[in-house]
């Protein structure tokens, strides 16, 4: 499951769980792009439930859309990742260190209020 919701003028909320195949990845990337149109200095709350690595086909779709993903990421200043798995939180923060201009901070599922507060700082 991958759901993207616009939450105000400069914020989107993303919920993800399960495993994405190539068709689902295309839909997810299209929805992220569509919902983030006209956002500048945006905020994103990313809730990750039961996560499984995407299929190889899904990863190929993501790689093919790297330019679109860079345009998408540049619209945001902060991303709070709420996940139950420690390795997902660590990977998210490493990703944030590699993307200039985007701060990513990860939180445990029990820390969603803290994630919200951090986004609004």
Can you give a write-up of this model?
The chain has 121 residues and is of the alpha/beta class. It has one domain: STAS domain (Transcription Regulator spoIIAA). 44% of the residues lie in helices and 30% in strands. The protein is built from 5 helices and 5 strands, in the order E-E-H-E-H-H-E-H-E-H. It has helices at 22-35, 56-64, 66-73, 86-98, 112-120, and strands spanning 2-6, 11-18, 42-51, 76-83, 103-107. The protein has a 5-stranded mixed β-sheet with strand order 1-2-3-4-5, with helices on both faces. Helix 1 (22-35) packs parallel to helix 2 (56-64). The protein is globular.
Relevant terms:
121 residues, Transcription Regulator spoIIAA, 5-stranded mixed beta sheet, 5 helices
């Amino acid at each position: 499951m991958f759901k993207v919701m616009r939450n105000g003028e400069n914020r989107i909320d993303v919920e993800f769980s399960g495993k994405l195949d190539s068709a689902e990845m295309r839909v997810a990337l299209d929805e992220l792009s569509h919902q983030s149109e006209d956002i500048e200095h945006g905020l994103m709350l990313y809730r990750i439930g039961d996560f499984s690595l995407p299929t190889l086909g899904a990863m190929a779709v993501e790689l093919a859309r790297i330019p679109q993903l860079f345009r998408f990421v540049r619209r945001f200043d902060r991303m709070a990742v709420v996940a139950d798995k420690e390795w997902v939180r660590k990977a998210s923060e490493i990703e944030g260190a590699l993307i200039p201009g985007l701060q990513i901070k990860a939180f445990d599922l029990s820390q969603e209020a803290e994630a919200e507060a951090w986004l609004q700082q």
